[in-house]
UniProtKB/TrEMBL annotation:
Gene3D superfamilies referenced in this protein's UniProt entry, alphabetically: alpha/beta hydrolase
Protein name from the UniProt record: Alpha/beta hydrolase family protein
Organism for this UniProt entry: Amycolatopsis thermoflava
Secretion signal span: 1-23
Record's keyword terms, sorted: Hydrolase, Signal
PROSITE patterns named among the record's database cross-references: PROKAR_LIPOPROTEIN (PS51257)
The keyword Repeat is assigned to this record: no
Amino acid sequence: MFRNIKSTAVAALLCAVAAPVLAACDEAAESSEAPASTAAGQEPISGTAKITVDGRSVNVSCSGTEMEDRPVVVLLAGLGDGLDKLAAFQQTLSTKGRVCSYDRLGEGASDQPAGPQTFDSAGRILTGVLDRVAGDQPVVLAGHSLGGLIAARYAPAHRDRVAGLVLMDATPSTIIGDTTAAIPESATGPAAELRAQSLAVYGGENPEMLAMQDGEVGYAGDIPVEVIRHGQPYLAAVPEYGAALEQAWAAGQDKWLKLSSDSNPVTAANSGHYIYVDQPDVAVQAIERVAADA
């Protein structure tokens, strides 16, 4: 598939929302087994565990110990990645406090979705996860790629519990329109195939059965937000349309700054799409800043 397009560029575009379409996303490390947070009246989750949300089994992982006046950090992986992909990153973060992650329905060790999903249904699963791993405690959501898009769509309607956001090369809020504008319907050859595959994934042909919709960036108040973008222009390798794809992605990162009156842009100069793998120090520092200010 896509043999005629430089593999790194194709993997970058599709891993941004559709990693399972290609076998180009890395294997993950093992998950942590340290103590973790819990909702009041329930036993603490240590390492990985299954919880039930809306009648579905959801795989979660928590590590680190509770720190006074510090929110729980909850990590959201990109499409096609399970929480095990985040394990090494989570272990690093957990030296400073409580950190949890989870597999969305259709990913990792969680159940398959019962049917097509929307951002609202994905948000309900996230709420159930937060209820269990954080209880009444505030949270900082740190999402990569599609996980960042879900976190950014969730935060404005949940200001009572989301105290901060870190977006790591988050999928833009207008990814469908961006893609169709950058690669027109008149495109031929590998670019046309890339366009068709991307739109199919956005429409729900993905492990989460998530049908994405473009939307305006919501407002989450004055919570601290850091928007990290890649510094290595991997999308530029797509023949003919790469420059337009890069420009659209960069514009999408700028739009995320509208989430808060306390938003800050960060560039991971030596990173491709997987910022927490390529330059984990940049992502860790951003999360630490947001957690401290939340």
